[in-house]
Amino acid sequence: MASIPISGSFPSGYGDMKIIASDGVTFYFPSFLLMHMSPVLRDSLNDIRPPGHSSVPGDPTVSLNTAYPSDVIEAILRLCDPKKEEPSFDSMPSQSAFLEAGHRWKIERVLGWWEKKANETLEKYRMGYRYNSFSPEMALILASRFQASPVFARTCLRVLILEPYTQLLTELSKQEYPLYPPLFIHLLQLRQERTRFICEKITRRHNDMRSCSNCSWFGLGLGHAVRDLILQVMETPSWRTLSAWSFEGCRCERKNDQLIGAEWEEDILRQENLLPPLPDDWQDRPWMESAQMSLTREHSVQAE
What we know:
By secondary structure, this protein is mainly alpha-helical. The protein has helices at residues 31-37, 39-46, 70-80, 95-104, 108-126, 136-145, 150-161, 165-174, 181-208, 216-235, 239-243, 264-273, 285-293; strands spanning 17-20, 26-29, 62-66, 299-303.
């Protein structure tokens, strides 16, 4: 007979409650801690152990069967136990399942901890760092589903406005869940506004630039260059796109005006640092209502 896998962090004897993950790993945890952190599980446990009951030798072991894998249960229990180190955000395989368990068991610390860690990661993302287990697209989807703070959702939007459009669609297609349609439409509108803001600067400057009478190539070449630059801005509407662009200009010795104004940088970066607004219906309420409906089917508590 195969032995039952037991958690090394929460072994037998660590607590009076046995928690069985969906992959069969068993955790032992103090029931009073879980009752303190989760009002949902507290109600279930009160049916077995009345309020005010103190555990004594001979009490039945409480068994909790869950629909979540062991890595999610491990992370949840680490946040509930002040004696344990916090879970590793960077190596968490399923942030969606982690937040789902916290949401359905109403453990408030789960969302608060995740939002803090995700916000720190977003700031690093803006500086060029990339992570295999995290993307701003995923963060926005989870923020909408699990009722993260509006400020955090706006921070996600600020980052995603600057993402290359092709990369944005690719990342969204790889996610476990789709982005809530009203929020996706709003994101596209924000990108269009930013694109228009930058392209209007380019076209005004182009119209005002002097053609070179000594070099007919300049006028035609500049027109093609402006078209290519606008296409790049439509893909990635950011100052980074403009600063990476180069154009040789006139082939003769006459100097011509620069297409990209030096004063644009401050103006565009100011826009990029602003937190964009959210639509009124940015939270994925249809999913939240369906999750609430299935709450009672997600776990079972019994005395052994």
